């Protein structure tokens, strides 16, 4: 009988086996299970702000829906939002971008996926940061290309090693992808690093995908985009959106900025997939970009206070070592001196202390001795998390003390 056995079933496309998930979501699922059992869990695993969009943004989406802004629109996004994004990038990053170089998508992952689909072919090589966002290598492999890591190491303050990157460029290298501020380390790439990366891209004819989703979440200085370096506007694709800076995670609203031929290609992909991004969310996004209540700066100021409190506390835990992040909202903690593996420690903190964090291997092989904590809970919860971690640290304190040479 047809379909009577598994062997008769049609097979899935082989690319599916090349994709991986996100470790943060697996920890989140287990944390929710524990909460259903009555356990108190402090959620520091997801990169989801505990803030919500400013009141004018919420009012704008209500008005947009009420006034019938729920129709099909341009696959590239409504003209007013694309102009608003161009103006916003000029105001916040001093970039000169034309609205025709902007495409709106339902989320940054979709914008990233469209860009990668437009640029990468089977057999290409893609350079990506390790540790880094796990979707970079996952989707690269799904497209039949080879993901080639370059490492962000603590001894270099998690800045990229340009000699390493240069040494890994081959005739098959097509794309260099990175994000700054970096998830999970919180590193903001230096001007010299960006300049050298731009030089490598120019000399070797590489496309650069610059994931700038955390560009507004800086704890000092002014953000510099690789797009602004000489010759880079013609070979850079910026990925950004509204999830992090405007606390609009569930709205699923992102965008890409790229040379016109790339936007044209991405537009065709949109027509062949999801048609367009919801109109009413785009209308509200225009209000978000105006930021009339100065919500972004207020949120970043709070993240800075959380960073200072939490990183200081983590560095007092036996066996922990944490460099203060320069941007984003993560604490990347070296736990090697605890004597425990990061996966073991992740489980211990969740199951016994009720603190949800992510073992660093979820972000690449360079993360095997690290944990990532998200600074997305209020300061009182961060203080409670520190107290819980301190209590459970008795389990490894003796080992840590011996490693650190303590009496």
Question: Can I get a quick summary?
Answer:
The protein is α/β, with parallel strands linked by helices and 407 residues long.
Q: Specify the helix fraction band.
A: 25-40%
Low-confidence stretches: none
Count of helix runs: 13
- Give average pLDDT, whole number: 95
Structural class by helix and strand composition:
alpha/beta
Termini gap: 73 Å
Spatial extent as radius of gyration = 22 Å
Biggest β-sheet strands, sense, barrel: 7 strands, mixed
Shape: globular
**What is the N-to-C succession of helices and strands?**
HEHHEHEHEHEHEEEHHHEEHEEEHH
Description:
With 407 residues, the chain is an alpha/beta fold. Helix content is 39%, strand content 14%. The protein contains 13 helices and 13 strands. It has helices at residues 23-36, 55-66, 79-93, 108-119, 135-142, 162-168, 191-204, 260-271, 279-290, 295-314, 342-353, 379-392, 397-404, and strands at residues 42-43, 102-105, 125-130, 146-151, 173-179, 207-211, 236-241, 254-257, 321-322, 330-334, 355-356, 358-359, 370-374. Helix 4 (108-119) packs across helix 8. The longest helix has 20 residues, at 295-314. It is globular. The mean pLDDT is 95.
